[in-house]
Amino acid sequence: KSGGRNRAVVYEERMNEVLQLQRTIESELREALRQSDQLSVEFQPLMSQPNGDIGGAEALARWLHPKYGKISPAKFIPVAENSGLIEDLGEFVLRRACEMGAQWPGRTIAVNISPTQLRNPTFATRVFDILHQTGMRATDLELEITESILLDDEHVSSQNLRTFRSSGIHIALDDFGTGYSSLSYLRRYPVDRIKIDRSFVSQLSKGHASVAIVQAIISLAHAMDIEITAEGVETEEQAEILIQLGSNTLQGYLFSRPVPADEIARIFADPGSG
Ligand code: C2E
Ligand code: CA
Ligand code: CA
Ligand code: CA
């Protein structure tokens, strides 16, 4: 019985530690957003098929803390989402991404958007302001949203998505297959692209059941005129299978890790040496 109480005490201490850590990250992130030289954006190349061109890149937030070093987005994005800081952080990433994209017309720049941003009625106006200020073309911008948005009955989110699509901005559904994936949601929230999550791609090998799943996703998507990106491609075998199944775009360490802005510029300028 006392063992149970001890476990409860240990559990409570752990909870307190976790909460304390979140509070620390939150206040440090608030500070970083004020100074902003700690924050940067990296770009991971997107490889188009069948030609193998680098058709664009995904922008990913990076945080280099003066004392704690590199902090992973997996740690700070959820804290940013829970504290409201995601709006400022998201805008910082979007601006950097559009500054990059403006220099490379015709290349798609994909930017991750949090549900909180999409639910803001002023979000579309802010995006158009940033496009205008940076000179980036709307048709070169792709906003990546997560599946949880599709369960969201919020009028504002769907209104924002419609506004974006009618202005030529592309919408991609990120991490497909990890949540309540149902292609039937796509009738309510039409998207241009589905990104098949790494958890499916990493299982792809000849004869494995995941091949049939990915094949089904791709053929359904294509029947609905939706393009496919496969993320987390790490091996030649995965790439081969995905190309054979008709994936339009491949992304993963096999081609390149996310790289700083000056390096993606070099890759765009000369894909052969990338
Ligand atoms: P995500 O949107 O699914 O982004 C892809 C993640 O997979 C990135 O991790 C990328 O570095 C990693 N990745 C790419 N290729 C491979 C591969 O071949 N193998 C493996 N093992 N990993 C690969 P990262 O940069 O750590 O970002 C993690 C997540 O944080 C992102 O997942 C996204 O959900 C979120 N995130 C990052 N930047 C932003 C941002 O600016 N805004 C928002 N809202 N979320 C962001
Ligand atoms: Ca993404
Ligand atoms: Ca993803
Ligand atoms: Ca993912």
UniProtKB/TrEMBL annotation:
Domain EAL: 22-272
Domain of life: Bacteria
Coiled-coil annotated spans: none
Name of the protein described by the UniProt record: EAL domain-containing protein
Residues of the full protein shown: 461 to 734 of 741
